[in-house]
Amino acid sequence: WNSMPKLVASCRKIAMDSLGEEAVFLVLSGADEFVMDEWPSYRPEIASVDAGEESNSLSSKDRAATFLGRRLIYSHHIISKVKRSDIRSLASQLRLTGYMKIGWPGLLLVEGLEEDCIEFYDAIRPWSWQYLVVRGEQQERISSSALATLDKARKFVEFREVDDMSIVAQHCRDAGLEALFRTSMKVYEDNQPVAGERGDDNLADDLPYGALVLVDHMNNPKGYRKWLRKTKQQVSGGGLWLMIKQSYPLDDYSKRPTILVALVGDDNECVQQFLKRWRTSRVDVDSKGKPCLERQMKVLVEGELTSHTGDEDVDWAKADAEESVNLSHKQLLGLVERIGGASWRDAVT
C-alpha cells in the first residue's frame, strides 16, 4: 500500500499542470504509465512470476492459437464501399473466411484462429458505425495452429460479400451452424428471443427510413442542389444519403424536367429534420432573383423502406453528383425502384 500515495501524488501533479484544460484523459494515462513503470518497484512481488508456474502454463496467445474461432457481428448497415474494401482486406490479412452481408442490416461472419477473430473485431470496432455488436461466437479446439489443420476445420473456404441474408443462413444451416446464425436475430439456444429484445418479427426496426420528393422547378438549379448537399452533411454527419436526379420528357431539354430528390437515413429523425429545414429555408430564387422558400415541393412517399432492395446497386457517390444529375425517364425509374422498391417507382408513375 506504500505505492498508493505515490500514485495519487503523480495524478495530482498532472492535474495541477493542466489547470484550465481537459485533464481526465491525461490523468488516466499518467496513472496507467505509473502502474506499468513504477508499481513493480514498490511491489516487487507483483513483478516476479514463479518460473515453475510460467513454464507449466500457456500464454493467452498460445491458448488462443489452439482454437478455431467464429464471430457473428451484427451491424445496423454496411454500405460504404471504402469500409467494405477495408473489411475484405483485413479479413484476408488475418486469414479469416466467412461472409459479409451488405445493406440493411449488415452482418459479418468470420472464422479463423481465435486470436485473429478477436483482433478483427478490435480493429473494426473503432470505425464509424451506427450500431455494431458481437451477437454470437464459437470456439472449437484444434490440434495445432498449422494452416493445414486450420483449413481442415473450417466451415467456410473463403470470405464472400453477399447482399442476400438467405445465402448466409443456408450456408450456416448446411454447415451445422444454424444456432450461430440465429444469434443475429438475438435467438439463442432455447430458440427464444432474449427478454426485452427483438427477434425476427421485429427486424423492421433496423430498416432504413426514406422520403421521395418531387420538386416542381428550380430557378437556380446549381445553387439549389448545392444547398441540398450541404444540408445533408449538416443534418446527418454522414448518416443520411441523398439522390438528386432529373429527367426531361423524351430528352427534350426545352421542356421542364421531372426533378426527384430521395432521402434515405438510418432513422426517421434525420430525414424529417432535413425535410423541416428544407421547408423553412430559402433554397431557391424567385423570378426577380431574390432568395425564396420552397413552396411547391411534394413528398410522394415517406416511411420505412420495407421493400428496400439494398444499396449494392446504388452508387450514392453519384446519386447526388452534379455531373450526373440528368437521367432518362427509364433510368430514373430504375434508380428510384432500387432505392425504395416498387412503391417508390409507382409513386413517380
UniProtKB/TrEMBL annotation:
Domain Small nuclear ribonucleoprotein Prp3 C-terminal: 72-133
Pfam families reported in the protein's UniProt record: Prp3_C
Residue ranges of the TM segments: none
InterPro entries, per database record: Phi-like, Prp3_C, RWDD2A-B_C
CDD domains for this protein: RWDD2_C
Domain of life assignment: Eukaryota
Protein name: Small nuclear ribonucleoprotein Prp3 C-terminal domain-containing protein
Source organism per UniProt: Grammatophora oceanica
